[in-house]
Amino acid sequence: KFEKNLKIMHELSIAMGIVKIAEDETSKANANEVIKIELVVGVLSGVEIDSLEFVWSSAVKDSVLEKAELKIIKILGKGKCADCDTEFEMENIYDVCPNCSSNFKGILQGKELKVKALEVI
User: How far lies 87's CA from each of 74, 81, 98, in Å?
Assistant: First the structure.
């Protein structure tokens, strides 16, 4: 239970950071409200999408994002083995190469966490 609460707190702080970005960008655009926000979240980013969605309504309450539609684009993890150059899909940061079982790899994608788009009025 403690770990679950810790994870929710982590996602809540991420959501609050997204609110800050949205408020700053909405202000720059001389807009009042966001009607849609698109986030890009990689499976290797350390963000649990379910937890982020769970805390979202609390995080955006009384902000420019309160009525915004939330769209999350999930990016799959992809790595490249440093020993045999095999490219492979990754679900976890510690996944090993399926070809040679090496732990040494470069992460090609999946660590993303960014606000891709805001639709404002």
Answer: 19, 6, 9
